[in-house]
Amino acid sequence: MQRYDIAIVGSGPAGISAAITAKVRNKNILLLGDASLSIKISKAQEILNYPGLPNISGADLARAFSDHLDALGIEITDKKVKTVYAMGEYFGIEAGTQMYEAASVILATGVVQTATIKGEEEFLGRGVSYCATCDAPLYKQGNLLVIGYNKAAEAEALYLSEIAEKVSYIQMYPNESGLTESKPYRDGIIEIYREKPVEISGGFKADTLITDKGEHKFDCVFILRDSIAPDKMVPGLKLKDGHVDVSADMSTNLAGCFACGDITGRPYQYIKAAGQGNVAALSATDYLNKRKEV
Length: 294
Description:
By secondary structure, this protein is an alpha/beta fold.
């Protein structure tokens, strides 16, 4: 398996900045994230404090980022990272159904905007999953529940409907669901609800979602948010006040693991994220160089 020098998780300003700097420093990089970049950027009406780009719209800034990546030949691997394992000499990165290896990792995933559901963390891996692609094969012909926090989750629900006996979809965003317009693979297999999840319960394994309107039984519930809490993604990662605890050089408590951008705390600003991405890439490069000297 190919082992990259630096794997960068996240394609917002911090991740893009880190990727650019690492590429300029001649590192073999893997950039994992949304190929369309961060929706927070593209939806921004006007950005006033990005040096050299006065009054730029979010859409124009996203295009500038994309053009810069293209100019350097940097490709985005459009996969959602589920887990990053510190393996000692390298990191194993589980993304979709694939595993990647990298000598160092830079986390630039932004912040999780929604609170966890009561019981979610307790039952993670025991009836609760964050990745439909990864865990769906374990529940063929099952009764599955999807809690979708964005429209991208609809595609995952449709995928699950190909293999499950039943799929229920709890929609957590206000706009219309495409599931009602684009027919499911089997008519009537996806039931759509607009309810507020309150608690996940069960015995050894989770089997019930309690909402503000009732209960839903399931074999597995897939909770699909924009991002996963960093300490759930990276076992052993130290947090402080809900953010990744970093030093001035963006290093974390795990050797070879760096973090930058909103994931490290306020202020949540594009320019701050980009600056930290640059520092994280330089620090990762220095870390790799020192390892070669040993």
